[in-house]
Amino acid sequence: GFAFARELGSLLSGGPAPFVATALVAAYGTWWPVACYAMFLSACTVIAIWIGPETYQENIAADASDQAELPAAIPARA
Q: Which InterPro entries does the UniProt record give (predicted)?
């Protein structure tokens, strides 16, 4: 869950960042649009942290014990 979300976020924001930065410098001829782009991505991170649930003192091990046990796989007959 967490690793997938982290890697997906890196793919969507960090992957195209060099291309976006190059395009911004080529279009405007200065560094400040790149700084604005970095601030925009940082603001997205802050908003995601702000709206995300707090899990500091939650017992996340209890979540696994609430699930019903799944039956073992039935072997295929030859």
A: MFS_trans_sf
* DSSP string covering 21-74: HHHHHHHHSSSHHHHHHHHHHHHHHHHHHHHSPP-TT--THHHHHTSPPPPPPP
What is the DSSP secondary structure assignment for residue 75, as one 8-state letter? P
Interval 2-52: pLDDT, tens: 788 889 988 988 889 999 999 999 999 999 999 999 999 999 889 988 998
**Residue in the block written with tokens 């707090």:** 54
Residue 13 structure tokens: 């924001």
The tokens describing 6, both together, are 């982290």
> What pTM did the predictor assign?
0.64
- Other beta carbons within 10 Å of 2: 6
DSSP state of 11: I
